[in-house]
Amino acid sequence: MKANRGHSIIKVNHQDIVLRQLIVDDIGDDYVSWLNDPVTIKYLEIRHKTPISRDNVSEFVSNCLTNHRPH
After folding, report:
1. Structural domain boundaries of the chain?
2. pTM, whole model, 2 decimals?
3. CA separation for the pair 28, 43 (Å, rounded)
4. CB within 8 Å of 8: residues ≥ 6 apart
5. What is the pLDDT of residues 9-62, one digit of tens each?
6. How far apart are CA 11 and CA 23, in angstroms?
């Protein structure tokens, strides 16, 4: 575990898989496209808020990091 801007980060590595906290720099066109795909988000709460923009996702992630929300 290492600290990053006052947050505890847990990073799990196993061959080609890395699990870690999402950061704003991770948000790209593919990620936003995934969040707007009805099949992908069928059982997620975000399905009620589509369409979603890159700015929406960036704001949400930034707020989670700033307010220490574990989403």
Report:
1. 23-71
2. 0.67
3. 22
4. 1
5. 667 777 778 788 889 999 999 999 999 999 999 999 888 888 999 999 999 999
6. 13
